[in-house]
Amino acid sequence: MAERLVGKLAPDFTMETVSGDGKEFGKVSLSDYRGKWLVFFFYPLDFTFVCPTEITALSDAADQFTALDTEILGVSIDSVHSHKAWINASKDANGLGQLNFPLASDITKKVASDYGVLIEEEGIALRGLFIIDPEGELKYQVVNHNDVGRSVEETLRVLQALQSGGLCPMNWKPGDKNL
Predict the structure, then answer these.
(1) At what angle are helices 152-163 and 51-60 packed, to 10 degrees?
(2) What is the DSSP code string of 117-174?
(3) Which of 33, 47, 145, 179 is the most buried (most CB within 10 A)?
(4) Catalytic one of 10, 30, 39, 51
(5) Distance from CA of residue 131 to its chain's centroid?
């Protein structure tokens, strides 16, 4: 039976990363985001077709997330070297170009498993997106079939609803009253 994650402390992680400009390798842990909100998302593989639409859309909206005191971290089971090559490849060659957030490598697949998005028989992750609050509590998760991309606008709306501090009815939008 699947374990519930929402409302609990987010599973801890430490992974290798490549910077959004594709120049530097590093490491990241969940504790690095204490005191900030985190949009943490999984995608199946580098150099695929739906993934760059999501990753570049989130990168294009990074200023909106920053304004909400929120960091973004993308992760797949690929190596940091694959991530670097993808960032540095031209968009004409199915590359990403520079990003406004790092990409992490879950090459062991442990983090995808801990977050419940690993497709074990394929060895890749589903499209899972998680919002983690400044204290490390997992507040939101959405998991899509790998054929369907996610919505930046919905992610921003849910983040703002969570940050509003109140009860938000169906179709709540920033500026609406809480219940």
Answers:
(1) 50
(2) -EETTTTEE-EEEEEE-TTSBEEEEEEE-TTS---HHHHHHHHHHHHTTS---TT--T
(3) 33
(4) 51
(5) 8
* Tokens describing residue 91: 């968009």
| Residue 1, pLDDT score | 58
Single pTM value for the model? 0.96
* Residue type present at position 97: G
Active site residue 51: yes
CB 88 within 8 A of CB 97: no
Q: Do 53 and 96 form a contact (C-beta atoms < 8 A)?
A: no
Q: Kindly report the CATH class assigned to 9-164.
A: alpha beta
CB 30 within 8 A of CB 63: no
The per-residue pLDDT for range 90-144, each reduced to its tens digit, is 888 889 999 999 999 999 999 999 999 999 999 999 999 999 999 999 999 999 9
Q: Residues 13-48: pLDDT tens digits?
A: 999 999 999 999 999 999 999 999 999 999 999 999
Domain ranges of the chain: 9-164
Residue 14 CA: distances (Å) to CA of 26, 133, 172: 11, 18, 35
